[in-house]
Amino acid sequence: MARLRKDHWLREIEKLDPDKDYEQISRIIGNYEFPWDVQQALSLALFRTYAVPSIGRLLHDTDAFTENVQKRHDDTLLILFSIANEGLDSSDGRTAVRRMNQMHGSYDISNADMRYVLSAFVVTPTRWIEQYGWRKGIPAEELSAVRYYQRLGQLMGIKDIPETYEEFEELLDTYEAEHFVFDEKSLAVADATLQLFASFYPKPARKAANALLRSLMDDHLLEAFHYPKPSRPVVFLSRKLLRLRARIVALMPPRVSPKRLEDFREVRSYPGGFRLEELGTFPVGCPVPHDRAAGGPN
Q1: Which of 43, 36, 3 is nearest to 245 (CA)?
Q2: 73 lies in which domain range?
Q3: pTM assigned to the model
Q4: Which residue stretches of 15-110 are H helix?
């Protein structure tokens, strides 16, 4: 088998139409071009939403991100990966979206918060790849992310979804400027999540890993959790290491096999396998009619 050119997947993306082929482009990005980067960026995107008190308090009060943080991490990753990998309109994709809608429909979550979380999932990976990716992103990749999350947002029943990347970016930055504020419950969720992330590293490296994770946070996110700002040398070293990794990846041959669920070593809750319809939380006493909460995508 002939060795693929380093730009093989980029050339494949350039053949596609992001307005129609956004799922295929997203799979190439997440499974071949930037699998590690996308995983880190989506974790950071979810983490930063905790700084919005209405989100952080809800997650705290369900105990899902404090008492059972490993399972909630795994469930979130498995649901999102199944949707992206199998397709929004596939059987597994629709089951995963339905399960997500059942969970969200069981709580009084505002459309504004849902739009904000959606924007974090669009913007954070794009910004991450711009800073730490082994190559720069291209407009087709940015547009495919917009189209993908617009469609996912529609299936989730989110209203007034932004129409362009710039609108998603403005929504993210404005919402965070207006809503990021310290809250004890949000801090507890953030602390538990950081402890989980650090546990993915060997014990001797966990303190350093925690410092690295905090050094990747922007100032207003640190301030929202009252986290001390890491020293300039620590920030410099952390970001230098990520850019060094990018240069090393740029010298490696392209992936020829996609990232699979088995490759997520951080997922520990289901050694015997899982069923999509059994992932997540099943709260009692929903604040909305149960038939609506149990509804799936249209």
Answers
A1: 36
A2: 8-252
A3: 0.90
A4: 22-28, 35-49, 53-61, 69-86, 91-105
CA terminus-to-terminus distance, the chain: 44
Residues of the chain with pLDDT under 50: 285-298
| Residues, the chain | 298
**Which residues, 6+ apart, have CB-to-CB distance to 44 below 8 Å?**
124, 128, 216
Which pair of tokens denotes residue 148? 């993908």
- With respect to residue 83, please indicate whether it lies within any of the assigned structural domains: yes
Residue-wise DSSP of 124-144: HHHHHHHHHSSS---HHHHHH
Instruction: Supply 182's token pair.
Output: 């310290």
14 domain-assigned: yes
Q: What's the number of domains the chain is made of?
A: 1
Give domain status of residue 213, yes or no: yes
Distance, CA of 120 to CA of 99 (rounded, Å): 21
Q: Tokens 């899982």 correspond to what residue? A: 274
pLDDT at 294: 36
Q: Is 30 left (phi over 0), alpha (psi -120 to 50) or beta?
A: alpha
Q: What is the DSSP-derived secondary structure letter of residue 272?
A: T
Contacts of 199 (CB under 8 A, 6+ apart): 206
Instruction: Name the nearest CA neighbour of 213 among 238, 190, 246.
Output: 238
Domain assignment present for residue 260? The answer is: no
- Token readout for 245 is 């990794």
Distance in angstroms (rounded) separating the CA atoms of residues 156 and 100? 8
Contact between 40 and 217 under an 8 Å Cβ cutoff? The reply is no
Predicted confidence (pLDDT) per residue in 7-20, tens digit = 999 999 999 999 99
